[in-house]
Design goal:
Elements: E1 2-7, H1 12-20, H2 29-32, E2 35-38, H3 39-42, E3 48-53, H4 56-68, E4 72-73, H5 76-99
Amino acid sequence: MDFLFYFEKSKFKDLNRVLTSDPYADNSFARVGYTLKDGGSINEKEGSYVYFKTDGEIGIKLSKKLLEINGIEVGGVEKEGILKKINEQEQNAIEGFGSIFT
């Protein structure tokens, strides 16, 4: 499952604490992996987006952690558009890195 959350700029310190806490736990963000993007690079919205992909049970536990610090779960058409932009940015970064060696 894909999970996407938005955080206001004022919540960045709390968000960073949650993302980096207990990195060796089975249900930690460090183990699952996540993408943290500045809202300005996605849709000119101040704040941050957190995207992660995992199975249902772990995803629900991690989602609860984000909701506890006032994360806003993004869904529907907005989610699809943001995930498309994140994937495009990652693909462009990969292609740019590849061009270094050609």
